[in-house]
Amino acid sequence: MTSSAADGTVPRIPDGAETPEKPHALAKESAPPPGRGGRLLPPLLRATAFRHYWAGQTISRLGEQISSLAIPLIGVTVVHADAAQMGYLGAATWLPNLLFALHAGLWADRRAHRRRVMIVADLGRFALLTTIPIAYVFDALTLVHLYVVAFLAGTFSVLFEVCNPPVFKALVPPGRYVEGNALTSGSRAMSKMLGPSLGGILVQLLSAPVALFADALSYLASAFCLSRISPAEAAPEPRAAGQLKTAVTFIARSGVIRAALAATATVNFFTGMVSTLFVLYSSTALHIRPGVLGVVLGAGACGALLGAACATPLARRVGVGRTFLLGCVLLPAPLLLIPAATGPAPVVLGMLLLAEFLSGLGVMWLDVALATILTTSVPDALRSRVFGAYQAVSLGTRPVASLLAGAVATVFGLRPTLWIAVAGGLTAFLWLLPSPVLSLRQPDGDGAAGEGTVGEGAAGEGAAGEAGAGAAGAEVPPGAEVPAGPEVPPGAEVPQEVPPAVPVPPGPGS
Fold this sequence. Notes:
mainly alpha
């Protein structure tokens, strides 16, 4: 693919363009000498700052997986929510993405210390989640309490996520984008493998509200880890008119971003419907106990772990764009086994395990490929704003999906609604067929853009996230730094495509 005005691509970065080297130099300085133990660690984890960041993310995501099981179980078993009320609970969790993500991204671009905002967000979520076990102990827990906590915790999550990409970018040297994305995706997959199983055991032993306290502690641990690092973050953007419009225009004019956003929004919407009803369906229709349900969700994490491990070789073999396409198909397709599950208990359990495992595999392909596309295509000056705008649309579909799932299930029942949702999710890949996404290849990794490599067609911030029904949907991955092209001055017109991205080192999201 050659660069031209007609196809919307932009010239590559001029030779004299500046790149933020300082944080990367610090990362290298913090690496221990190559000893026997050092060789066992990936290079990025030898850097103290990135290791603290990665550890905090891993612990926090482990807690999130506990709460992804515990909160719906609280709704079903403690406050006895029906299908419609479970829809409201899911909507409360995801509504902040729709309401605040776009403006939060703009606000984050103007902050000098985004890491501090992430710490405040962690402490806020710790305080909020702690109120649930306290209210339960005093027999004061209500459905309204769950709605409020879900909404406010979701708001803090939006703030955390829009500040995360610049911090991640400041910690990762230019040749390590794929490794960084693979490490964060791998830790997310591992947390999904351990979190639901651990959550199921804790729920059976201690009750769901008390198990939720483990998630609260994980946010405290994440805040502590973030307090131990001090990356050289990009300078904040000055206030100027039209900054939100610039981010939206950037997305609208990129053929790759438009297609990627349409695909992720579609898969998020329909798998979000599945996610909303999954715990209620499994508990009431299939009579699965919390401990077994945790094992089922853990199978999805096993698939995600395998997917994270093979995403980079797959992208090298078939291309980043086609890896993304395969993820868009493999994420929803196995979920057909969920409404199809019937017969003896071992058969039902086997179908659910297979559905979760294969869906987890697909979500990691989607995550890593989309993170790579985004990482190399969004200029520094727009990173948080584009991330926020992408998240507002992609994850903003989920509250609507939750409400629709509850309403449809109330009228037609749980199983028919699940059939409808999975069928809808299978249409997501259609957005990619006529788009430039499929031509994106694995970069050479030398920092220079090559023909047909990722970045030539302005990609958007990715979003794929939690695998399977237990946490279906796409989550925008943090995205590392790239020589992303010249910064776009505030209020300036955005070119038709993203500034020249570099060939991406292999490749999100909750």
